[in-house]
Amino acid sequence: MFSTQRVIRLAARSFSTAVPLQSKVAVLGAAGGIGQPLSLLLKANPRVTDLGLYDIHNTPGVAADVGHVNTLSNVAGYTAKDTDGLKKALAGAELVVIPAGVPRKPGMTRDDLFNTNASIVRDLAQACAEVCPKAKLLIISNPVNSTVPIATEVFKKAGVYDPKRIFGVTTLDLLRASRFVGDKLGRIADVPVVGGHAGITIIPLFSQVEGLELSKEERDALTYRVQFGGDEVVKAKDGAGSATLSMAFAGARFADSLLRAAAGEDVLEWAFIRTDLYKSEGVEFFSTYVKLDKDGVKEVLPLPATISEYEKDLVKDAIAELKKSEAKGTAFVAGN
Ligand SMILES: NC(=O)c1ccc[n+]([C@@H]2O[C@H](COP(=O)([O-])OP(=O)(O)OC[C@H]3O[C@@H](n4cnc5c(N)ncnc54)[C@H](O)[C@@H]3O)[C@@H](O)[C@H]2O)c1
Ligand SMILES: O=C(O)C[C@H](O)C(=O)O
Q1: What torsion, rounded to 10 degrees, do the Cα atoms 46, 86, 230, 303 define?
Q2: Is residue 195 within 8 Å of residue 203, measured between CB atoms?
C-alpha cells in the first residue's frame, strides 16, 4: 500500500523537485476534458505555488476537488459569473495555459473549430494582455496553427507583444512520436517533432533518433500515425471529444519545462513559436527546437542539417499549409 505522501511524491517525480520561486499558473478552460486532469497534474507539481482556475462554469467544483491534494499550493476557481473572475484567475500569473474551446468530433479537421475557438482565444488573450502581459502563454486550443497567430496579434494590438512568451503547445505530438517508436526500439527515446499542429504540418524527425532503423514502409506508416494520431483518439472517443488525458500530461510537461527554465535550468523543448526561420517563405510561426530561460524563449534553433530528404519534403508541404492557417488567424484579429 502506498501512503498518500508517497503517491504525491510519485506523481511529482516526473517533474523536478526543487521549489525556488513563487509560481502562479492560471488555467483557462479548467473545467474541461483537458483542464481538469491538467489542473490536477499542476497541483502535483511542487514548483507551482498558486493555481488560478477559470472556466465559464463548474470551476469552483474542480478547484475544491483538486485543492484537497496535499501539496502546499493554493487553488482558487472562478467562473464567468464571478465579478472579475477571469481577472482574478489571471492576476499575478507567471504561466497561463489555455485549453478553452470546443474539441473535434469524427470527420472534422482542427480548422473546422476555427469559427468557435478563434473568438474564445482572442478574448482570453485580450484579458491576459491587460492583466498579466508578462506571463508566458501556453496555447492548447485548436487550431493551434491559427490560434497562436491570433493571440500574437492581440498582444501586438495591446502594445505588449514579446515573441519569447507566446507558445503553441505541440508536446502531444512529441509524446506520440516517442511512444509509437518505443515498441520498435524497446525503449523510450525523444523524437523531435517540428512544423505545426495539424495533419501534414506535423513532422516527426525520425532521422534524428540514434539507433533507429526504419524501412521505407515503417517510416511512412509511423509518420502518418504521428500526423494523424489525434484522429485516432477522436475516432475511438466516437463523438465524445478528442485527446484529453495525454494532452493534460503533455501540457503539464511543457509547463514544467518553463518553470524549470524560470528557475535557472537549461531546458530544450519543442514548441510552435514566432521565428524568422521560414519568414522568407511567408511563414512566421513554426514549431522547432527552442532553448528556454526565465524570460521564455532564449534561442530558436534551426532544424538539424542532418534531416533526411524525405523530411525536407515534408517541411515544404507543411509550409504551404502553415501559411494559410497563419494568414487566417492574423486576418481574424485584423477584422478582414
Ligand atoms: N494542442 C493540442 O495538442 C491539443 C490536444 C488536445 C485538444 N486540443 C484542443 O483543446 C481544446 C479543449 O479540448 P477539451 O477536450 O478540453 O474540450 P472540452 O470541451 O472538454 O473543454 C473545453 C472547456 O473550455 C471551456 N470554455 C469554453 N469557452 C470558454 C471561455 N470563453 N473561457 C473559458 N473557458 C471556456 C468549456 O466550458 C470547457 O469546460 C480543443 O480546442 C481541442 O481541440 C489541443
Ligand atoms: O486531434 C485533435 O483534435 C486534438 C489534438 O489536436 C490532438 O492532436 O489530439
Answers
A1: -70
A2: yes
Q: Whose CA is nearest to atom 6 of ligand 1?
A: 243
pTM for the full predicted model: 0.95
Residue 253 lies in a domain: no
Closest CA to 172 of 148, 150, 146, 139: 139
Under the phi-then-psi rule, with left for phi > 0, alpha for psi from -120 to 50, and beta for the rest, what region is 11? alpha
For ligand 2, atom 3: residue with the closest CA = 104
| Ligand closest to the CA atom of residue 236 | 2
pLDDT band per the 50, 70, 90 thresholds, residue 22: confident
Q: What is the spatial distance between Cα 203 and Cα 326, in angstroms, rounded to a whole number?
A: 17
pLDDT of residue 21: 60
Cα 152 → chain centroid = 15
> Domain of 281: which CATH number?
3.90.110.10
What one-letter code names the amino acid at 326?
Answer: E
- Here the ipTM equals 0.99
Pocket test for ligand 2, best of 247, 272, 325 (most atoms within 8 A of CB): 247
Structural domains in the chain (count): 2
- Domain end marker among 125, 150, 170: 170
Helix ranges, the chain (H): 4-13, 35-44, 59-66, 85-90, 114-131, 144-157, 171-185, 216-227, 229-237, 245-262, 309-334
Binding-site residues for NAD(+), in ranges, read: 29-35, 55, 117, 140-142, 247
Ligand 2 pocket, mutate which of 121, 169, 172, 226 (most atoms under 8 A from CB): 172
For residue 187, what is its C-alpha cell?
525503449
pLDDT digits (tens, 9 = 90+) for 262-299: 999 999 999 999 999 999 999 999 999 999 999 999 99
One domain for residues 179 and 319: yes
Protein residue with least CA distance to atom 5, ligand 2:
230
User: Which domain covers residue 280, as residue numbers?
Assistant: 171-246+263-335
Selecting among 43, 197, 274, 328, the annotated active-site residue is 197
Among 170, 195, 224, the domain-final residue is: 170
